[in-house]
Design goal:
Blueprint lengths: L1 H5 L2 H27 L6 H21 L2 H20 L3 E3 L2 E3 L1 H18 L3 H16 L1 H9 L10 E10 L3 H14 L4 E8 L4 E8 L6 H12 L4 E10 L2
Antiparallel strand pairs: 1-2, 3-5, 3-6, 4-5
Main location: membrane
Pfam families: MgtC (PF02308), MgtC_SapB_C (PF21770)
Membrane topology: Multi-pass membrane protein
Length: 238
Amino acid sequence: MRFIATFDAASFLDTVLSLVAAFVLGTLIGAERQYRQRTAGLRTNVLVAVGAAAFADLASRLGGPTDAMRVVANVITGVGFLGAGVIMKEGLNVRGLNTAATLWCSAAVGSCAGTDMLAEAVLITFIIIAGNTILRPVANAIDRIPLDERRSEVSYEVRLTVEASALADLRDLLIEALEAAKYPVGDVEEGTGTDGTSLLVAKLVSTAVNPAELDAVTDRLAAVPGVRHATWESTTEE
């Protein structure tokens, strides 16, 4: 049998060590994901790490470092497609990005283990677990900080609900009121409201405003005859 002729005990033990290391480190990463009930949990992270290690080890034994790098590059691409499967869009929210990134990192751990870089694999595992645990309360604390609209990159709109018969005049008045307050208007969109009303939406050129100033402008506009309602809103830019 060709197996008997080509079998090398030293190489086999090296492969065993690489795959066992990938299994153990993938288990550590996956256990944290499983505990938090993520889509890609314990088994998925273990299989990604072991699979990456197996491919990298196979390429190293058959072709050498150059072929190993080529295989690792393809592993990265393949795991990228796998990670896309755990990303879900719910309305305006996107879930699963962190889980997909963790899978990608598990492949990096496996690739290091498969190419006999065990110390690097352990280091990457530690960083992954730290990122998913230690940084979690830090991220939550940042999310609870109130948004200062004067220091954030946001877009602003001033909205008026007006009587349809006064639409043209109130459109000009809206632009004049905003420019008088030093808020130039980039565009004004018109729409149809309910009960025979019309909508005016002025998009501001400014990316930083004083909320109190916009409140004062909308209060003045709300008092104008023909204006049913006046408000403004901000949207955080991506």
